[in-house]
Request: fold
Amino acid sequence: MRISEDRYDRDRQRLELALRFLTHEARTQTIRIWTGLSDDRIRKLYRSHLGRAACYVPRHRGKSPHQAACFTRSLRIQQETAVLASFFALAGLVPAEPSAAAGAALPDIARGNALCNAFETYTIMIPAASISFEYAVFLAECLARGDQLRLGRCCDCGGMIVVERFPIREKRCHHCVTAARLG
Ligand SMILES: [Zn+2]
Reply:
């Protein structure tokens, strides 16, 4: 009896997380990786819970993001990335020693909910946020693996920023770059 109750609870937690990911317009592949649900169950969940609201929550198909360079593209994106990454760090989503193994172990139910909390806080902090949920998931995976991006420090003020693994030159945060430009 106990075993089946535990199994029921775990299944309910998976479904709840999948719904949360769906409302953030996550791709089926991303939901499958983080919840362990099959594509078929994710599709059924989408139809039964969000199908009528489908015009408001579009489904994304195709490949997930894979370019870490998109997080350093402009000063504005760098600043948003630093804000989101700091929420990830506070939520315990960035391991002290990033590695391929830490990246592979990242997706689970508890961390999936922590990731949603961090993303939701980020969108409240930055109303015109330009990092989508899929890119936020990708950023969390990048920071856990540490092979392309890492948490770093602004060389002027020491504020937290996201940097390439092997930066060509010392990096400054959005505020210090703006201050330097204004002279
Ligand atoms: Zn700075």
